Amino acid sequence: VDAGQLKEGGAVKPRKLFRHDYIDYLKVSQDGRFAAVGYYSTLSSNVKHCAAIYDLKNKSWFTIPETNIVNPSVIYDQGQYYVIMQKYRPQKYSISVKKLIADKKIKGLEPYAEMDLAAEEVPFDFTGLGDGRFAFIKKAGLEYSVCLSGLDCRELVLFEAPLKGMKLQNLSAEISEAGVNRLTFSWAVIETLPRYGFLDLKDSCFAL
């Protein structure tokens, strides 16, 4: 759906962007050029988790030549596109950051940084902040937190969820000309419906 249609009000007719089998994750880059797609591959007897990037500008696909990757996200930061994704092995997860090499079309990916996480720590919902950092949600056992990291994966800042048993998802950043002021997310506890919350990055406080 085009943002201009929403501003005008009235009936909105969605348009088809692309078709792909077995999609379980989709996220569009903040500048609207790329859609990162996570999907299952059933070409062999072992189902594998894969990812691809769709260029909305020239309507072409680039398949990431790896498997066991989840939650791919394309971010644009200071003149460069990056792909951030979760890589997993049994009981072990990591965050992989790669440069996306593209001009008129995607040419490939270059390794940039990687962050290994402790056993049973699961990162997801990667979102760029536009200032050399990205944010994500981390699940460790039954505990959730919002994390900030540089694209070089050298530093990690963690904000623990303020309520016991609180589940977080759908993280995104509110970016303006002044930069990122806060992160938004949905949250819930046992026997409640999801609701809206945000993390103010200026004073490091949650508002629910």
Descriptive tags:
3% helix, 4-stranded antiparallel sheet, single chain, 208 residues, 16 strands, mainly beta
Explain the overall architecture.
There is one protein chain. The protein has 208 residues and is mostly beta strands. Helix content is 3%, strand content 60%. The chain has one helix and 16 strands. The chain has one helix at residues 3-8; strands at residues 23-28, 34-41, 48-55, 60-63, 69-77, 80-89, 92-102, 106-116, 121-128, 133-140, 143-150, 156-160, 167-176, 179-188, 195-200, 205-207. Strands 1-2-3-4 form a four-stranded antiparallel β-sheet, with no helix packed on it. The protein starts with a helix and ends with a strand. The model has no long low-confidence stretch (mean pLDDT 90).
Strand content: over 45%
Please compute the radius of gyration using only Cα atoms. Answer: 18 Å
User: Helical proportion?
Assistant: under 10%
Walk across the major sheet and give the strand order. Answer: 1-2-3-4
Mean pLDDT: 90
The stretches of 5 or more residues where confidence is low (pLDDT under 50) are none
The total of beta strands comes to: 16
Order of helices and strands: HEEEEEEEEEEEEEEEE
Sheet with most strands: 4 strands, antiparallel
Task: Give the terminus-to-terminus CA distance.
Answer: 29 Å
Question: What count of helical segments does DSSP give?
Answer: 1
Described by the principal axes of the CA atoms, the overall outline is: globular
Secondary-structure blueprint:
Layout lengths: L2 H6 L14 E6 L5 E8 L6 E8 L4 E4 L5 E9 L2 E10 L2 E11 L3 E11 L4 E8 L4 E8 L2 E8 L5 E5 L6 E10 L2 E10 L6 E6 L4 E3 L1
Antiparallel strand pairs: 1-2, 2-3, 3-4, 5-6, 6-7, 7-8, 9-10, 10-11, 11-12, 13-14, 14-15, 15-16
